[in-house]
């Protein structure tokens, strides 16, 4: 017979079957039984039915484990008859265990480990006696201890987080387990130091590589002195981005020299932050400041000079002949701008974009293109746009009439010459364009004249007063629009 122990009990009630006796001669006999070879218990048999006596079954409680009930019948001749009934009561009920809460405790003597008074005992129960308690430790570096009999409350825990797994095992080998964490910290006097790179090494300035907008930089790393050989983590962030975990190299003694980081950095300021967290949760950071500068000038090539003509009789035009400049920089986001210098010497403001859509006035305009990269480096070039009004110029010159243009005077008394006032042209400058005025006497050297201020669009040139010797002379006024 095999039965399970009753719920929350370490035994079970079992009904043990009994032998059947056929007593042909109706002789006297005795009946007894023993449990597990113990004391013999006599049984009064029930009345026979004919010659057959059916003994009554035995109902008893049996503890967990194997048992034997031996029926013994002795007849009147002294013959002994036995029947063995084998009974097994199994314990299928798991024990229960409740771990204490997680523990945080602090070392106060500057050491590397401690037995913590804050660790309570686990609570466990089983339906049967003689359960055993054991535990196994998993340390922060992932290593585990052997399974140790007893309670972890007296264990000398190292700095850091240790996972304690309690196992309760009952007498039948059924088990239950629970886990909790013991975190031993060394806050007041940590035996862990992080030395950041010095100020010079922590401030790096490099130039972008030729024709590139970035540079490869080797970033120095901290040095760690880990006296207690405790577990720690290392990570870094670039410009506050995602944290990247780093596996530290093997220590030399207690010292771990982290390997430098080699990365490419774009033009601009950057910060690499090393973060080390020791087993006590203390956080150490080292900031490495990196500046990648763009020292490379952009390049620009202007289009060729342009000459174009107004065909609608106007005073200005947007010329289709103006090509775009070609410019390049090693970094993106360069901006193009231009400044115009007009024929009268005045200049425009600096204007963003291309001059190809500008409405140019009649005359010669100097276009200065400027390309500026994102770092403020500049390059420039220049070309000329000459807008002409040949077919229908909006510019008229009225010469003095025939009478005024033919002057005859006598030499002054006792002199061989005379002072003559020479009349000048009148100019109607509808488009208010630039123009030049000069004169020549008898085909001699050209003399420039600054015209007076216009009245509206009309400029009346001032007459010329000169002395002329006896003889014919010609004064030629020349105006160029």
Short account of what is shown:
With 481 residues, this protein is mostly beta strands.
Structure keywords:
single chain, mainly beta, 481 residues, rod-shaped, 45 strands
Explain what you see.
It is a single chain. By secondary structure, the chain is mainly beta. It has no helices and 45 strands. It has a five-stranded mixed β-sheet with strand order 1-9-8-4-5, with no helix packed on it. β17 (160-169) and β18 form a beta hairpin. The radius of gyration is 57 Å and the shape is rod-shaped. The termini are far apart.
Radius of gyration: 57 Å
Strand content: over 45%
Shape: rod-shaped
Which whole number gives the mean pLDDT?
A: 96
Low-confidence stretches: none
Q: Distance N terminus to C terminus? A: 131 Å
How many alpha or pi helices? 0
| Share of residues in helices | under 10%
Largest sheet properties: 5 strands, mixed
DSSP E strands, number: 45
What structural class do the secondary elements suggest? Answer: mainly beta
How would the blueprint of this fold be written?
Layout: E1 2-4, E2 11-16, E3 20-22, E4 29-35, E5 41-43, E6 52-54, E7 58-63, E8 65-75, E9 80-90, E10 96-98, E11 103-106, E12 113-114, E13 123-125, E14 132-138, E15 148-149, E16 157-158, E17 160-169, E18 175-185, E19 192-195, E20 203-207, E21 214-219, E22 223-226, E23 233-238, E24 244-246, E25 255-257, E26 261-266, E27 268-277, E28 283-293, E29 299-301, E30 306-309, E31 316-317, E32 326-328, E33 335-341, E34 351-352, E35 360-361, E36 363-372, E37 378-388, E38 395-398, E39 417-422, E40 426-429, E41 436-441, E42 447-449, E43 458-460, E44 464-469, E45 475-480
Parallel strand pairs: 1-9, 11-18, 20-28, 30-37
Antiparallel strand pairs: 2-7, 3-6, 4-5, 4-8, 8-9, 10-13, 12-16, 14-15, 14-17, 17-18, 19-22, 21-26, 22-25, 23-24, 23-27, 27-28, 29-32, 31-35, 33-34, 33-36, 36-37, 38-40, 39-44, 40-43, 41-42, 41-45
């Amino acid at each position: 017979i095999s039965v399970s122990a009753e719920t929350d009990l370490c035994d079970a009630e079992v009904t043990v079957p009994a032998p059947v006796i056929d007593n042909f001669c109706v002789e006297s006999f005795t009946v007894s039984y023993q449990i597990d070879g113990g004391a013999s218990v006599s049984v009064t048999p029930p009345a026979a039915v004919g010659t057959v006596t059916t003994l009554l079954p035995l109902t008893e409680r049996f503890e967990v484990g194997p048992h034997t009930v031996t029926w013994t019948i002795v007849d009147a001749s002294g013959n002994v008859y036995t029947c063995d009934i084998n009974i097994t009561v199994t314990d299928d009920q798991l024990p229960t265990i409740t771990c204490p809460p997680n523990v945080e405790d602090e070392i106060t003597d500057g050491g590397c480990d401690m037995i913590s008074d804050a660790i309570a005992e686990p609570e466990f129960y089983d339906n049967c006696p003689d359960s055993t308690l054991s535990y196994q430790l998993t340390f922060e570096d992932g290593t585990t201890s052997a399974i140790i009999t007893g309670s972890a409350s007296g264990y000398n825990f190292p700095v850091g987080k240790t996972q304690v797994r309690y196992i309760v095992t009952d007498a039948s080998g059924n088990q239950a387990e629970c886990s909790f964490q013991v975190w031993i910290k060394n806050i007041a006097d940590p035996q862990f130091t992080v030395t950041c790179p010095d100020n010079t090494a922590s401030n790096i300035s490099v130039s972008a590589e030729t024709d590139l907008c970035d540079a490869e930089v080797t970033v120095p790393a901290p040095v760690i002195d880990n006296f207690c050989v405790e577990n720690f983590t290392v990570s870094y962030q670039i410009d506050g981005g995602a944290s990247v975990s780093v596996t530290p190299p093997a220590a030399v003694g207690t010292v771990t020299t982290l390997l430098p980081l080699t990365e490419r950095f774009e033009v601009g300021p950057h910060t690499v932050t090393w973060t080390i967290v020791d087993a006590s949760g203390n956080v150490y950071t080292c900031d490495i400041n990196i500046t990648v500068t763009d020292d490379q000038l952009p390049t620009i090539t202007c289009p060729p000079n342009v000459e174009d003509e107004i065909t609608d009789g106007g005073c200005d035009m947007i010329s289709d002949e103006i090509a775009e400049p070609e410019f390049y920089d090693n970094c993106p986001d360069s901006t193009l701008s231009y400044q115009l210098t007009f024929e009268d010497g005045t200049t425009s403001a600096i204007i963003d974009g291309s001059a190809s859509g500008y409405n140019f006035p009649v005359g010669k305009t100097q276009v200065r293109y400027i390309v500026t990269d994102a770092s403020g480096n500049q390059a420039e070039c220049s070309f000329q746009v000459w807008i002409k009004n040949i077919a229908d110029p909006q510019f008229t010159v009225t010469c003095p009439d025939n009478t005024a243009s033919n002057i005859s005077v006598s030499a002054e008394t006792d002199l061989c010459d005379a002072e003559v006032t020479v009349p000048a042209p009148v100019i109607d400058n509808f488009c208010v364009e630039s123009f030049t005025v000069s004169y020549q006497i008898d085909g001699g050297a050209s003399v420039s004249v600054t015209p007076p201020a216009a009245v509206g669009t009309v400029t009346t040139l001032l007459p010329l007063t000169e002395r002329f010797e006896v003889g014919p002379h010609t004064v030629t006024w020349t105006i160029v629009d």
